[in-house]
Amino acid sequence: MAAPATPAPSRVCNVTGFTIERNGQRLALANGVVAIALLAFGGFQAILIALERQGLAISADWWYRLIASHGTTMLLFWLLFFEVAALYWGSTMLLNARMVAPRLAWANFVMMTAGVLAAQWAMLSGNATVMFTAYPPLEGHPIYYAGVLLFAVGVLIACIHFFANVVVAKRERTYEGSLPLVVYGLAAAAIIALYALGTGAVAYGMLFLNSIGLLETVDPATYRLFFWGIGHGAQQVNLAAMVAVWYALIALTVGGRPVNEGLSRVAFLLYIAFIHLGAVPHLLVDPGLGTSHRIMNTSYMLYLAVLASLIHAFSLPASIEVAQRERGFTKGMFQWLKKGPWREPGFSSLVLSIVVFGFFAGVTGVLMGTMQLNMLVHNTLFVPGHFHSTVVSGTTLAFMGISYYLVPILSQRRLVAPKMARWQPYVFAAGVFTFTVAMMFAGQLGVPRRVPELGYEAAPLGLDQFVTGPVPLIMLVVTLGGVVAIVGGIMYVYIMVMTLLKGERTETPDDGLRIAFGPAARMRAPAGEGAVETAAPTATVTADGGEQEHEHITGLKGRWRRWTRFEAPGTYLLVLIFLAWFVVFYVIAHVNLSQSWPVG
Amino acid sequence: MAEEPTQGERELSTLLPPKDRWWERLGPDERRWLTIAFVWCLVLFSGMYVWLAVGDQQTPVESYRIDPFVFQQEVDAFVEEHQVDEIQGAAVVEPPPGSEVYLHANQFAFRPVLKLQKDETYRLLVSSTDVQHGLSLQPTNLNFQVLPGYLYVIEITPDEVGEFPIICNEFCGLGHHVMTGLIVVD
């Protein structure tokens, strides 16, 4: 491909040292802004949905419309729009490269937005109350399917554009050697997106043809197979993108990198190969599949994709620990964690989203994907509990964290309300954590998902088990947690919108943030906040490193030191605690299962 | 900083290209954790087979394609043969212990009401004649997907006496939240 006659202007970023091309900057910001607008819209719906649980008068019809739109807005539109922004950012700024076809990207941006608007109209006007899953033979308006299709094809084109950017960057030698780890992770997300969106196009395509009368019937079981390719596949895109963003946040907030970067890359390869099987647990209590099929596929092929997550579970905290220890925080097992930059919104979002994602979202996901255990949770409120803890306290919080850096850097404006930014991740995480755990408890007690009221008064054969006993209290906790989370969400949207509209224009947009990466950070390092104990030796421990060096790094003495030789002993203890938690959960779930009626 | 990173001039970061080839030899930390993690993955995997051998609760896998019209006829015949009572306009059937029992999901009810005996095993034949539904057996909390055109065979053995509601937990239309059924065990 020939270089453009007049290359788009670019600038060197004062904060990071990267060359930022104007097209990439504008496209990343535009997609990011639409993403945040969609997050705000979905959040507004969440307020109504949460309050309806406590008696806000909304008709069942409108409640179902809200659930349909909230689900589709958040699970598809907000996250994928943000991921498109992240793909453009990763493939231009991080590679000092340019958008290969900016006009195409703008046309694509318009198409995706149009698709979103069309689908929203259909859902909110009551013409497509079929939920995010749109299971046939429920019928929706053709405009709904066409809207989602336009959006999905748009994301597909954006992924292809990402690869084009990377290839051209390589050819134009804007970077040397392999891709940076973060871009590598984003590439994994883009590859997973290719097949997620491909199967999605088939699923929604069938429904679209059916809705305009060109296809007589859509087999419900076949549809479910294809649908979950995007229904869950899109969440695996979120997973890979989120892990990439975590690695970026580690670099930005503590200047860390994995102890073994190669292993992290292998983990991304395992995601590419196996994570799409995570769609199969949705079919675990469907008619039509055999035992071997269920076990092989729901296990993500021997849990190799879970292995990838366990690698990241070690690698991510170890990156933070080693960076902090090199900075001099070497006392005991956890001084590195205690002395983390907890007032930095990127760091608190990073740690909170890793912890909640690992301990709650990941573990419950694996258990739901265990063949027999799935019977206990399928379609109960446990399922929304699980996926709110993945995509809200995990992905959304991580994306919020990175935008505290990307928005100022790309827009060259100073972040407004830094004090509010300091608190925002805590408020949001506390709220989401509360309502997701409460949802899981309710699901364990049988509360179904997608039900506006639990009294069953209008049913000929009623039941009162959800209006007596512990369920009403649990549902109150769901609402309260939801309200707190929404407050955190409003804080985030306020900060972002005000930064973009009113933020002071500046050449040094990192003022007010503490960025541990790039030329500015290096200049500042000796006098910086985190460099309290720079006098401590900074030698790295190698496999054959001396004990003396090791002691400086880990601060461990005596038996521990002889026994471990760990570079990141605190992390080791944490992952072992995590594993124990996982085992306990696994055992409890099987005890629950054994108390059900014999079934088979 | 007392000294620059030892890797030469280039800074190493997740945001920058790695030095040379990206693969690095595994250190002892990583090797140990990788082993532990992989063993746990194998436990998770074999756990499903172990439960197949020792557990009483298994995912049902027997299923057939069925024309919704045919299914409707079979349900009607079944109700006619075994009906013993009626509550709230719903037929109550008491099939012989150990027999095949039809359960019909459609907007917005599970019918008929089933009278079963404790500790007897029944083959529930479940299907839908309109849209997809979720069969959720309360409060034992066992959940299955019901698809039109597919007959799902679920063997259950009620091991307690009482009234057990069935609720729908797959969105099936505007009456989804009032869709129920009932199993009575004595």
Characterization of this structure:
The complex is a heterodimer of chains A (about 600) and B (about 190). With about 600 residues, chain A is an all-alpha fold. Chain A is about 65% helix and about 0% strand. Chain A folds into three domains: about 20-250, Up-down Bundle (Cytochrome C Oxidase, Chain A), CATH 1.20.210.10; about 255-335 and about 545-595, no CATH class; about 340-450 and about 465-535, Cytochrome C Oxidase, Chain A (Up-down Bundle). Chain A is built from 20 helices and two strands. Chain A has a two-stranded antiparallel sheet. The model of chain A is unreliable at about 525-550 (pLDDT under 50). Chain B has helices at about 30-55, 70-80; strands at about 60-65, 85, 90-95, 100-105, 110, 115, 120-130, 135, 140-145, 150-155, 160-170, 180-185. In chain B, strand 2 and strand 3 form a beta hairpin. The chains are: A mainly alpha (about 600), B alpha+beta (about 190). At the A-B interface, helix 2, helix 6, helix 7, helix 8 and helix 9 of A face helix 1, strand 8, strand 9, strand 10 and strand 11 of B.
**Name of the CATH superfamily of the domain at 62-185 in chain B:** Cupredoxins -  blue copper proteins
Strand residue content of chain A: under 5%
Distance between the termini of chain A: 60 Å
Strand order of the largest sheet of chain A: 1-2
CATH superfamily label of the largest domain in chain A: Cytochrome c oxidase-like, subunit I domain
The assigned CATH architecture of the largest domain in chain A is Up-down Bundle
* CATH class category of the domain at 62-185 in chain B: Mainly Beta
SS-based class of chain A: mainly alpha
The main sheet of chain A comes to: 2 strands, antiparallel
Rg for CA atoms of chain A: 24 Å
The CATH class of the largest domain in chain A is identified as Mainly Alpha
Assess the beta-strand content of chain B as a share of residues. 25-35%
